[in-house]
Amino acid sequence: MNKEMLKEIFNEIKTRNKIVIHTHERPDGDCTGSAYGLKDIIKTTWPDKEVYVAAETSDFVSFNGTPDVITDETHNGALSIVLDTANRDRVADKRFADADMVIKIDHHIKVDEFGDIDYVDTSRPAATLIILDLFLMFEDELKMTKDGARALFFGTLTDTGRFKYSGVDGDTFRNVAKLYDYGLVASEVYAYLDTRTEELTRFKGYFLQNYSKTENGVAYFKVENEVLERFGVTLEEATSLVNELGYFNDCPVWILMAEYEESIVRARIRSKGPAINLLANGFNGGGHAMASGANLGTWDVAEKLLIEADALVKEYKENQKQD
Ligand SMILES: [Mn+2]
Fold first, then answer.
1. 180-184 own/partner pairs: CB under 8 Å, 24+ apart
2. CA 254, CA 298: separation in Å to the nearest integer?
3. Residue 41 and residue 132: Cα distance in Å, rounded?
4. Could you tell me which of 1, 18, 32, 170 has the fewest CB atoms within 10 Å of its CB?
5. What is the pLDDT of residue 196?
6. Does the pLDDT value for residue 322 go beyond 90?
7. How much distance in Å is there from the Cα of 161 to the middle of ligand 1?
8. Distance from Cα 128 to the centre of ligand 1, integer Å
9. Is the CATH code 3.10.310.30 the one for domain 198-322?
10. Where are the domains of the chain?
């Protein structure tokens, strides 16, 4: 945590009248949770400020809030705060750069520097926890409602795999404890996350019967559009199952691939062994050491990714043996 920089960010927020909060493409619980949480904090503290969330939405993340309507005009004279996004190309609304000033707040391994202030803290397992670092530092001045607390909790839970992933530490729980003090009803969030349609349940059965493994131990599954249609599930629902492949002792790396809009194939890469972010960098992607995404383009490139991932696991297992 860099208190000097957080203070600078706080001062910018405090003195600006128009703030547009930005998130990344294909939004997840963390980028939307931190965006709606931050909006709640600013609006509750300073009701007269204009605060907008520029975001895409989806069935899953609509739980956190509804994006605002943004025009070109909205960015005039505004402060842009870009959350949870390592590179400028991934910001959902590219007009963020038209603002007077850009602040980036992120917890991914640095890809681009695109803010006038670039605040990156990779020790935080969710961007929501950085918003809480800021909130706690200036708690005497800042306010938050239980809706803001709920959005920040949602982002934290989804980005940490419910406090399981690496990076979760004492600070995580100290920050989250505060949310309860501000009226969080955690059971609302758990009830939402624990709901699954029968269609997705049946798809999960199919998925667990039909995944594959490479020679050295990369578990993987290719989500074909035809299968989504057959089971009546969305792409977002299907790809949420990625960690179902993470249970095997002999497969420290697992990958879920799917065809997104405009037939672009993307991969979710996860690990409990070797770092996979450099592997993802080689395929137009990146993220965290143990969780990254990659843009493959076509299914042919998927085969290349599997070959490289398999080689990485082979090397990892050989090193393990020597230790
Ligand atoms: Mn995140």
1. 180/149, 182/144, 182/145, 182/146, 182/148, 182/149, 183/145, 183/146, 183/149, 184/146, 184/149, 184/150, 184/153
2. 19
3. 10
4. 170
5. 93
6. no
7. 11
8. 8
9. yes
10. 3-193, 198-322
Angle at 37 between CA 82 and CA 4, to 5 degrees: 60
Asked whether residue 81 carries a pLDDT value surpassing 90, the answer given is yes
CATH entry 3.40.50.1820 includes domain 3-193: no
Q: What is the amino acid identity at position 144?
A: M
Q: Record the pTM.
A: 0.90
Question: What would the pLDDT profile of 279-320 be if each residue is shown by its tens digit?
Answer: 999 999 988 899 999 999 999 999 999 999 999 999 999 999
Of 100, 87, 16, nearest to 50 (Cα)? 16
Give 10-19 pLDDT, tens digit per residue.
Answer: 999 999 999 9
Residue that is written with structure tokens 């294909």 in the block: 26
CA 158 to ligand 1 center in whole angstroms: 9
Query: How many angstroms is it from 31 CA to the middle of ligand 1?
Result: 6
Q: How many CB atoms lie within 10 A of CB 142?
A: 18
